Amino acid sequence: MFESIQNKLNRAFKVLSGKGRISENNVKDAVKQVKLSLLEADVNYKVVKEFINDIKTEVLGEKVLSSFSPDQQFIKIVNEELIKILGEKKVDLSLQNRPAKIMVVGLQGSGKTTSCAKLAYLLKKNGKNPLLVAADVYRPAAIDQLIQISKKADVPVFTGDKKNPIKIVEGALKEAVKNINDVIIFDTAGRLHVDEKMMDELKKIAKITKPDEILMVIDAMTGQDAVNSAKKFNELLELSGFIVTKLDGDARGGVILSIRYITEKPVKFVGLSEKIDGLEAFYPDRMAGRILGMGDVLSLIDKLQANIDMEKAKQIEEKITKNKFDLEDFLSQLQEIKKMGSFGDILNMIPGAPKNVDLDAGQKNLKQTEAVINSMTKQERRNPKILNSSRKIRVARGSGTSVTEVNKILKSYNNMKDMMKMFNKKGGKMKAMKGFKGLPF
Ligand SMILES: Nc1nc2c(ncn2[C@@H]2O[C@H](COP(=O)(O)OP(=O)(O)OP(=O)(O)O)[C@@H](O)[C@H]2O)c(=O)[nH]1
Ligand SMILES: [Mg+2]
Question: How much is the pLDDT for 436?
């Protein structure tokens, strides 16, 4: 999924990697690459235009953060723009009415019947009591198909007279009251293209059922054609949102990146497999991370940005370079990291970072660490090497701990110092993270 657009976007980011700072000149080429990636992914040209304009404005207006390299800053901007185009926030179904009614429409073979059953499964898992309605009487096997798949969801199917869609939906409304169903999902007939007769039938069904949601199912593999038919469906039926299916295939990404911008209606779910549990709520930020293929790095950037005190980070950076990182700095770094969560967790998010480094020891018991460091003389804190056994005994007594604890904390300090040196070493193991050299660890 999205492999091609991912590779191409990465090429755009590479243009900027290794550059000292972000500038109008070196960004030009990167923006051009992003434009090509989007066009090749079959993203609607209007969306591409908006995307590129926004990126240019953002790039030039972006405050330069010393701790991020130009490619990282650019990734951040592209990510934010992707989220914007995808719709910013997850939009929930309106299920306040009892029963809430969801009408599922779309072109032939887009995945309506499968998605109805998947949705019923999801809602049931969330404590709802749904009823599925087979309102497709045209394709001979359609009703049996719905009955078969809904067995996996353990949800009842209303089939009525199996002949007249209008009578079927009327019957279903009564059945739901009788069975105390709180959600009704109507599976409707597919059509090859938008034709008047079928549309009239859908309008009639909508008039009778007064649906809380009309969701159109879109096959991600069908590209811009799907976006065009979505536009027409939306004009005729006033959709409330979309289910985009078959994102597990080699969809290029065009549909998911265009649909919301073009129709101004949100994507509410995505289909990720043929299986009953293959439907997920749609989160624009997670999808952007998937498209970029670097969700972890992105959440790391967010975390750091929200928590780092840039000035302090710079001072620490200088200290490491001059090899003057002492126990006082260690303590202040522990306090800083605590704001972000566990150091081990953060390290896990960094590609190529060593695993199983016991750096959490000092963090786990911050109070104790504080007490130990506070029991040292200024001289000892500045130069921990002078801590011989008699000094350690004194510090342990003063802080109400033991020599073992003191040693543990010193070990943790040394580990952190080594890690920081590694982060700072040019071309070292942390090459991938060279922009993060101001990190507080
Ligand atoms: N891989 C994959 N296949 C899917 C997904 N959603 C649906 N399909 C498959 O797509 C095919 C068509 O799905 P249906 O649910 O029958 O589509 P429909 O829109 O109801 O089709 P008609 O009723 O004939 O218009 C089936 O083989 C489904 O298993 C998905 O998210 N991923
Ligand atoms: Mg169907």
Answer: 39
